[in-house]
Specification:
Length: 104
Amino acid sequence: MKKKIFFAVATIVAAVSVGYAAYLSQRVGMTDTLLENIEALADEEDESKSAEVIERTWQEGPFYTGTGENTIEYYWVYTLTECYGDGVIDCEYNLTGERKETSK
């Protein structure tokens, strides 16, 4: 009787151990696959070089110069060119300002 109980307990312990080992190996496999997928996505981003030119324009003013009937109203119009990313594009950082007078 004791041998049968011992054999049954040993069988259950062995089955649980095998099941747990299979669970751990599957879990590690899923983690490895996940890491490989992340690396593949990161590699693709490195290979696809992309560059972007962003140009922004804004104005400041109005400003006034002169007095009385000789008063002139004007604005400053600025354009900023910035380059982002990697790749081959014709881009150079640039900031320009132009004075524009308003007509009366």
